[in-house]
Recover the amino acids of this structure.
């Protein structure tokens, strides 16, 4: 049931289940509540190093759960300014607080229009709803 998932209204979303929070000239990126619940218990997260250039739509890392290994896709293009240093030792933070302690990257973005092109909470909720009907 979609009512079991959180869709914070102040975030942007991708169809690949990443969320984006704008913080000045950079964004913070993580995976959505929908994604972490579908994956199950997260056991490993691989992230790029600070300074890495990521490209919108391209894989930037890997998330592994007891059920599956999945690529993480960049919601925008930019330079990695910070990575969540807690995740290698505490990947379960993605499950317990995906929008807080489970964040993954902070990225200085190249183009604000890429951010504006992302889904808002209501459109992302609709996207999740359509997939759950399949």
């Amino acid at each position: 049931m979609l009512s079991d998932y959180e869709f914070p209204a102040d975030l942007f979303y991708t169809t690949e289940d990443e969320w984006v929070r704008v913080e000045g000239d950079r964004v913070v990126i993580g995976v959505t509540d929908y994604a972490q619940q579908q994956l199950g218990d997260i056991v490993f997260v691989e992230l790029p190093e600070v300074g890495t250039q990521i490209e919108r739509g391209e894989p930037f890392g890997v998330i592994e759960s007891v059920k599956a290994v999945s690529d993480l896709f960049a919601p925008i293009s930019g330079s990695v300014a910070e990575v969540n240093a807690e995740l290698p030792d505490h990947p379960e933070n993605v499950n317990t607080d995906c929008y807080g302690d489970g964040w993954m990257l902070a990225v200085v973005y190249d183009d604000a229009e890429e951010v504006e092109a992302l889904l808002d909470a209501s459109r992302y909720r609709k996207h999740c709803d359509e997939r759950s009907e399949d």
